[in-house]
Structures are given as C-alpha cells and as structure tokens.
Amino acid sequence: ATGGDAIPLSSDGSKEDGYTGPFHWSPDSKKLVAWRAKEVKTRQVHIVQSSPPDQLQPKLISFDYTKPGDPIRQPKPCLFEVASRRQLPISDSLFDNPWDISEPAWNLDSSEFSFLYNQRGHQLMRIVGIRADSGSSRTILEERSETFIDYSQKTFLHRLPKTRELIWASERNGFNHLYLIDEVSGRIKNPITQGNWNVRDVVNVDEDKRELLLKVIGIPNQDPYHAHFVRIG
C-alpha cells in the first residue's frame, strides 16, 4: 500500500476528554494502544511574599498546586483493532485510580499489552496485562504495602521478552531485592538476590548471558553506605 489515507479509529473524543499519545503498535501491526484522559482544573494556591527583592510592598504570588485528594489527569490505555476500525473496550477495574501508568510494552507475539500501574497513595503497584483479542485485563504481578512503596527510587522492571520473564525489585521481605517472575503465570521463579542488604542500582542487564551487574549497599559489619559492585546470574 502506498499509504497516506487517514483512517478514523474513534469519533467520541473531545477537548475535555480526548485521545493522545504516545501510541503503541503491536508487533504484527494489527492492534494499536493509545491513551485517553479527562482534563482537570488544577488548584491554585496563593501566598504573600512579605519582602520581595524588586519592590517595597508585599507581593501576592499564585501558582498551581495539587493537594491530596484533588482530581489529577489520569491517562488510561485504549485498545484499537486497526483492520475493523473498532475500539475494544477495556475495564479499568485493575487500574481505576492511577498516580501513574508507565513501562508500556507489547509481548513478541502481539497477544498481550502490559504496563505498570502505580495507584494514588503509593501503597499498591500492579503489572497489568491486556489481551489483544478481547481487551480483558489480568494482574500479572502485584506489590502492596500498608505504609509506602518507594516508587521513585526503588522501582525496577526489566522484561525478558524471549522467555516471557520479568526482573522485578521489591522490598517485600524488608530488604530491596530482585526477583525473577514468570510473566505468564505471575509466580516468582526465584529470588535473584537475597540477604540482609539492599540492591541500590541495576547497572547492566546482559540478556544473552543472563547476568546482572548490580550496585549493593548495607553489607553486614560494614559501613552501610559502602557500595559494592556484584555480578550475579
């Protein structure tokens, strides 16, 4: 085909509730994932600067600031079947209140699209899979905490597409360690690291050799900030 013709896949978007990118084509080019989000009005907070550097009188300063519980923009995935030009409905029951949805990816045979869901409050993170043929969703992996998941510093997800495995970081045993996950069943195949110390950073993943280069800290009987580099299978 020479291409160039516009093909409408949706007609129900609006300025207040529209579709957006980034777009994710399935490897077989038969399905497309886009995002849809309702626009929200951000709360404004006002403060008085008592002694501004450029004038003698106090100055009123206003800026956008979202308070806990305020509505936020929440893009969610939408699945389209390109040939039939139809949208496959997806239930958002597994990702209904996102702070963020990240790490989107198709598997190699185009049968499933998955992403990492970080729920508002940061006590629940979930890897969700969306079936390409039906739009049905499933939980691949779930992480819960009664206090707080350190998502900004300790989240690590690396897919191994050829073997349908995941490398995942978790503090579920009290220390930050890596686990090898079967993406199909969601079960833990084995803990890659374990012990009374923490994985600080994944420096490199060698998928061919199935080896990791890690920076680790908190080795017992040492300065807790003394970093070691470790290579592990």
Account of the protein in words:
The longest helix is centred in the middle third of the chain and has 4 residues, at 151-154. It is built from one helix and 17 strands. Strands 1-2-5-6 form a four-stranded antiparallel beta sheet, with no helix packed on it. Strands 7-8-9-10 form a four-stranded antiparallel beta sheet, with no helix packed on it. It has 233 residues and is mostly beta strands.
State the main characteristics.
233 residues, mainly beta, four-stranded antiparallel β-sheet
Radius of gyration, CA atoms, in whole angstroms: 22 Å
Order of helices and strands: EEEEEEEEEEHEEEEEEE
Describe the sheet with the most strands. Answer: 4 strands, antiparallel
Low-confidence stretches: none
Distance between the termini: 46 Å
SS field, number of helical segments: 1
Query: What is the residue-mean pLDDT, rounded to a whole number?
Result: 95
Could you say which overall geometry the principal axes of the C-alpha atoms support?
A: flat
- The strand line-up of the biggest sheet is 1-2-5-6
Q: In percent, how much strand structure appears in the residues?
A: over 45%
| Helicity, as a percent range | under 10%
The total of beta strands comes to 17
Structural class: mainly beta
